[in-house]
Specification:
pyridoxal phosphate binding; Aspartate Aminotransferase, domain 2; PyrdxlP-dep_Trfase_major; alpha/beta; 17% strand; 7-stranded mixed beta sheet; Aspartate Aminotransferase, domain 1; transferase; 416 residues; 2 domains; binds 4'-deoxy-4'-aminopyridoxal-5'-phosphate; 37% helix
């Protein structure tokens, strides 16, 4: 590092230019505890955005479990070890409709890749449907389902992206575009292997869709012989408050569920849960092996995270604090706030100007104004005008009060 090079320049020199940081003035974080983060100058930030540190940054029980296991044994997945078995048994109890076996992996992208290959193996078909405003990960297969940046070489013929829920895409419109896409895949000779969806449509801007919204689409998928794949990477582990899984909130019964981000509270552990018949087809077709997936340290992190969720009753907490924060957000009454979205500790607001146009620039400015005031949150949605608030699950009423007070000030700054 030379004397004049900034940390950001050094990052670009060493990691390349395309790993974006948050904020115009990026934060260098050095320490975390609960809902709090500290930067290199000792400044404290309220974290209203981090869904990876699910049970709070550096939760002592998770840290201790990781340290203890790392000091005892860590190895690859070819030996017998009870940690991952205990975990799958415990987590399996939280699934209905026969989902009882897991492929442990290391990232959400990998989990979705495996889920897609499970669907191909189980159905003998190759086609997939997803929404046109989503993100499910970055493997070659999964990045075919992303519209953020079209895949190099263009989309493959076996992919159909349907208009995302929200706006005028009601349940009926969603179902008919799914049915049409399934028909097209059939006619093109691919057939439908599966529909991949995030049950709260997180990356689509989490539109408030009612329970039952996806029923007709799911029926169309089943009629075409495809599987329903739920990406719970963002929605899972109690974040929605009312339920442990987003698919329970939506009221659908998926054939495979992928999970990641919050699963190990920051330790890279992820997985796909499915039925034994689908697992058998997958193993038969792909003979899948993963060196790090579900290793003893990963299993210790995942077991400890699940224990904290249970012992601290964090799902109920997400429901109650989320409802309170949403109520206070509604009470701000600033003219830019055109509507509220979300549930539990995944919520936000839609920002529009008086003429109804998306307040995308104002939302971007608001995120920056919050950062300057020491509160971290972000924005999403096809137009970037949805304020996205998604704190660690230990966020309490006092944290919500501080976030709302700061937001009220910041709104007055960006749109007086
Ligand atoms: N699915 C969803 C819904 C996501 O939001 C993301 C990441 N933002 C992924 C999958 C990919 O997870 P990972 O970055 O761990 O590969």
């Amino acid at each position: 590092m030379n004397q004049t090079e900034t940390l950001l320049q050094r990052r670009e020199r060493l990691l390349g230019p395309s790993v974006p940081t948050f904020y115009r003035d990026p934060v260098e974080l050095v320490h975390g505890e609960g809902v709090w983060l500290w930067d290199a100058d000792g400044r404290r930030y309220l974290d209203c955005y981090n869904n990876v540190a699910h049970v709070g940054h550096c939760h002592p029980r998770v840290v201790a479990a990781i340290a203890k296991q790392a000091g005892t044994l860590n190895t690859h997945s070819r030996y017998l070890h009870r940690g991952i078995l205990d975990y799958v048994e415990r987590l399996g109890a939280r699934f209905g409709h026969g989902l009882s076996q897991m492929v442990p992996v290391c990232t959400g992208s990998e989990a979705n890749d495996v889920a897609m290959r499970m669907a191909q193996a189980a159905t003998g078909r190759t086609g997939f449907i997803a929404t046109d405003a989503t993100y499910h990960g970055n493997t070659a297969l999964v990045s075919q389902l992303s519209t953020r940046r079209p895949p190099v070489g263009g989309y493959a013929g076996n992919i159909r992206l349907v208009p995302a829920p929200g706006g005028d895409v009601d349940a009926e419109a969603f179902a008919s575009s799914v049915a049409r896409a399934a028909q097209e895949l059939e006619e093109a000779g691919h057939g439908l292997a599966g529909l991949m969806l995030c049950p709260i449509f997180a990356n689509e801007g989490f539109p408030d869709v009612p329970p039952g919204y996806a029923d007709a689409a799911v029926a169309a998928v089943r009629k075409a012989g495809g599987l329903v794949l739920c990406d719970e990477v963002q929605a899972g582990f109690g974040r929605v408050g009312s339920h442990f899984w987003g698919h329970e909130l939506l009221g659908i019964a998926p054939d495979a569920v992928s999970m990641g981000k919050p699963m190990g509270n920051g330790h890279p552990v992820a997985g796909v849960m499915t039925r034994p018949d689908i697992m058998a087809a997958f193993r038969g077709a792909f003979g899948y092996f993963n060196t790090f997936g579900g290793n003893p340290v990963s299993a210790a992190a995942a077991n400890a995270t699940l224990s904290v969720i249970e012992d601290e009753d964090l799902v109920t907490k997400a429901r109650d604090v989320g409802a309170y924060a949403r109520e206070r957000l509604a009470a701000i009454g600033h003219p830019l706030i055109a509507g509220l979205r979300g549930r539990g500790l995944f919520f936000g607001a839609e920002l529009r100007h008086a003429d109804g146009s998306a307040a995308s620039d104002a939302t971007a400015d608001l995120v920056e104004a919050m950062r300057r005031r020491g509160v971290l949150l972000n924005r999403i949605g096809p137009e970037g005008n949805i304020l996205k608030i998604r704190p660690p699950m230990v966020f309490d009423h006092g944290h919500a009060d501080l976030m709302i007070a700061t937001l009220t000030e910041a709104l007055d700054e960006v749109a007086p």
